[in-house]
Write a structure and sequence with these properties.
The chain is mostly helical and 180 residues long. It has one domain. It is built from nine helices and four strands. A hairpin with a 3-residue loop joins β3 and β4. α2 packs parallel to α4. It is globular.
C-alpha cells in the first residue's frame, strides 16, 4: 500500500491539488464568500516532520486559497502532547522555492515574522475580538502574567529541575517481572 502523504504529494506535483485541502481553499473564490477559515492542527502535526514537502504544499494551498488572515493555529494540537514541538516545526518550515514559483505560493518568511505570528495567534485574536498588545509589524509580545513569571524564575534557576527521566522503562507487567 502506498504511503498516503507521498501519494498526495505525487498527485499535488502533477495536478497542483491536494484532495480535500484544495476543495476547501477554493470555496471563497468559487462561491464569493469570506467566512471560510482553515485550521492547522492534526494535518500540520501529522505531516510537518515526516512529510515536510507535503506540509509545505498544504500550507501554501490554504494560505493562497482562503487568505493568510483566514488560517488559524489548531486547537486540536494538544492531542499530541505539548504543542511546543509543533510550534517549533511551524517556525522552521518553509515553502520550497520551486513550489513558490510553480504554484504562486508566497514564502512564510522569518520564524517570528508577520505570516507565522498571524497564523499562531493574531488571526484568532482578531476573529475573537481580542485587543492584544502588539509591537513592530504585528510581532507578538511577551505577556507579563503569572506563567511568564514562573518561566523567568525557572530560567533564572538554570532550568532545574529538567524533568528528564533516566533509567530503564519496562513494558512487562509487575506480575511477569516478579516471576523471573
Amino acid at each position: 500500500m502506498p504511503d498516503l502523504p507521498e501519494a498526495h504529494l505525487e498527485r499535488f506535483e502533477r495536478t497542483g491539488r491536494i484532495d480535500w485541502v484544495t476543495d476547501l481553499a477554493e470555496i471563497p473564490a468559487k462561491y464569493g464568500v469570506e467566512n471560510v477559515y482553515a485550521e492547522l492542527g492534526t494535518c500540520f502535526a501529522t505531516s510537518a516532520v515526516t512529510h515536510p514537502r507535503h506540509c509545505a504544499a498544504l500550507l501554501g494551498t490554504l494560505i493562497k486559497g482562503v487568505g493568510l488572515d483566514h488560517v488559524l493555529w489548531g486547537t486540536d494540537s494538544v492531542w499530541y502532547g505539548s504543542p511546543q514541538w509543533q510550534i517549533e516545526a511551524f517556525r522552521q518550515i518553509e515553502i520550497p522555492e520551486d513550489m513558490q514559483e510553480k504554484h504562486g505560493f508566497s514564502p512564510l518568511g522569518p520564524a517570528a515574522g508577520p505570516v507565522r505570528n498571524a497564523i499562531l495567534g493574531l488571526n484568532a485574536a482578531r476573529l475573537y475580538g481580542l485587543d492584544l498588545p502588539i509591537q513592530e509589524a504585528a510581532a507578538l509580545t511577551v505577556f507579563d502574567d503569572r506563567l511568564a513569571a514562573i518561566k523567568r524564575d525557572y530560567e533564572a534557576r538554570g532550568r532545574t529541575p529538567s524533568n528528564l527521566a533516566y533509567g530503564f522503562v519496562s513494558t512487562a507487567s509487575p506480575q511477569s517481572s516478579a516471576r523471573r
